[in-house]
Model the fold of this input.
Amino acid sequence: MSFLLPLEFYQRDTTKVAKELLGKVLVHLAPDGTRVSGRIVETEAYLGADDRAAHTFGGRKTERTKTMFLAGGYSYVYLIYGMYNCLNAVTRMEGDPEAVLIRAIEPLEGLDIMKARRPNAKRVIELTSGPGRLCSALAIDKKSNALLLDRRPLFIEDGLRVPPSKIIASPRIGVDYAGEAAQWPLRFSEKDNVFVSKPPRSK
Done:
């Protein structure tokens, strides 16, 4: 029997949550109840008001970002480039607008459904190796925004623990506008996993 992560899991330090989400299992039930899931292999932490890369930098609260001000454990889904959805897990307590972006997953269940949703993906690795790709494969869109992640239809289950020696910390992707914050090592990925969207450069 699967174990759903409790809301308390998310209501902690955002960087710690981002690391510990690696190895957990993201599940979105299809309309007929079929499980479509993947193991989380890449995340990014966004640290709210003090983080120039975060949507809530400076405490900015808008119709788009209001979900980030909820207590940890809610989903935060937003659109980039007018076409790609991105899924985040809200963290910390109500009023602390921080979140973890789910950047990549390794498919586990519902592979045929994922392929049907992403017919242009020529290889399995292209199904879920990136935040927009995984949302498309799991049919996560704006209707999935502000859902509690400890219940159906969108939830995260416990999984295998990824040891610290297997976790790579590197700068986040696509936040060059954020100045010094663009270099913060808040992107976490599982070492040598082929589904990581852009493997960090070796040092």
Summary: Strands lie at 25-29, 35-46, 75-80, 84-91, 98-109, 154-157, 167-170, 187-190.
